[in-house]
């Protein structure tokens, strides 16, 4: 649920990057963090085990669009993907506004992808949220690797609901389509918010270092250099 803070004149949206272990969630956030100019973001907090897996969450507020004088902030979280950390995933999912589901495109990860998506649905249902109500996009990540499933197959497995989600071919280690997917879910959130609150996003200051040109509202970020 978006939070409106009248004192600081901010609206906060929480976006959770969800997916199986090692699918590339932390890599997404690290890339975004690196490319967004420091004035528009906070610190990236990553708690990792010795095995280099996220234990708790990454957190990245991105200042972006101004809605009727309120600055919108996007807080980006990742969940730990391992099955045993379901309690942590439920905690991180609390009050979620939007989801980026990151699937690992490698053939041997299909079962884990499907299981993780099902787990997302279950954990949302615990909060009385249906996956069909919440803005989300799908990422098919690691498209640079050789042993990957074709997009059609991933769509068949993960994007088979009546209302199909936007999906992106991503290589998060190089940043390909990382911002495209973030922009897509952000726009969905802003659109939903505008409809509910009867206000329209107006100004979108450039959020990425080295990109002085204005960004068309309601996009929040654009890819920087390649
Ligand atoms: N080749 C390739 N490796 C990736 C990509 N995205 C992530 N990785 C690697 O996959 C491993 C797990 O990534 P990480 O972001 O920690 O996964 P997480 O558990 O979902 O947070 C790391 O070694 C990353 O460098 C990608 O697009 N291509
Ligand atoms: Mg991680």
CATH class placement: Alpha Beta
**Looking at this structure, what is the CATH superfamily?**
P-loop containing nucleotide triphosphate hydrolases
Alpha plus pi helix count: 5
Total number of domains: 1
Shape designation: globular
Query: How can the largest sheet be summarized?
Result: 7 strands, mixed
Indicate the CATH topology: Rossmann fold
Give the CATH architecture.
3-Layer(aba) Sandwich
User: Cα distance, first to last residue?
Assistant: 34 Å
Rg on CA atoms, Å? 17 Å
Mean pLDDT: 84
**Which ions and ligands are bound to the chains?**
guanosine-5'-diphosphate, magnesium ion
Helix and strand succession?
EEHEEHEHEHEH
Which range best describes the helical content: under 10%, 10-25%, 25-40%, 40-55%, 55-70% or over 70%? 25-40%
Structural class: alpha/beta
Question: How many β-strand stretches?
Answer: 7
Hey, roughly how much beta strand do the residues contain?
15-25%
Low-confidence stretches: 202-226
Helix/strand layout:
Elements: E1 3-5, E2 10-18, H1 25-35, E3 60-67, E4 70-78, H2 86-93, E5 98-104, H3 110-126, E6 136-141, H4 151-158, E7 166-169, H5 178-197
Parallel strand pairs: 2-4, 2-5, 5-6, 6-7
Antiparallel strand pairs: 1-2, 3-4
């Amino acid at each position: 649920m978006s939070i409106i803070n009248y004192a600081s004149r901010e609206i906060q949206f929480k976006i959770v990057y969800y997916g199986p272990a090692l699918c590339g969630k932390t890599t997404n956030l690290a890339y975004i963090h690196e490319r967004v100019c420091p004035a528009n973001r906070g610190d990236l907090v990553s708690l990792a085990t010795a095995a280099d897996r996220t234990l708790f969450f990454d957190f990245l507020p991105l200042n972006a669009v101004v809605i009727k004088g309120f600055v919108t902030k996007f807080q980006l979280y990742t969940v730990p993907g391992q099955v045993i950390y379901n309690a942590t995933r439920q905690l991180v999912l609390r009050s979620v506004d939007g989801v980026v589901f990151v699937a690992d495109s490698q053939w041997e990860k299909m079962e884990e992808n499907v299981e993780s998506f099902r787990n997302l649905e279950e954990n949302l249902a615990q909060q009385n949220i249906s996956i069909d109500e919440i803005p989300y996009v799908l990422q098919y990540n690691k498209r640079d690797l050789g042993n990957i499933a074709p997009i059609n197959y991933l769509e068949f497995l993960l994007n088979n609901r009546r209302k199909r989600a936007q999906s992106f071919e991503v290589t998060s280690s190089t940043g390909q389509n990382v911002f495209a997917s973030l922009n897509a879910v952000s726009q969905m959130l802003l659109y939903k918010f505008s409809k509910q609150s009867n206000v329209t996003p107006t100004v979108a200051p450039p959020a990425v270092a080295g990109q002085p040109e204005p960004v068309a509202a309601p996009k929040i970020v654009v890819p920087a250099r390649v």
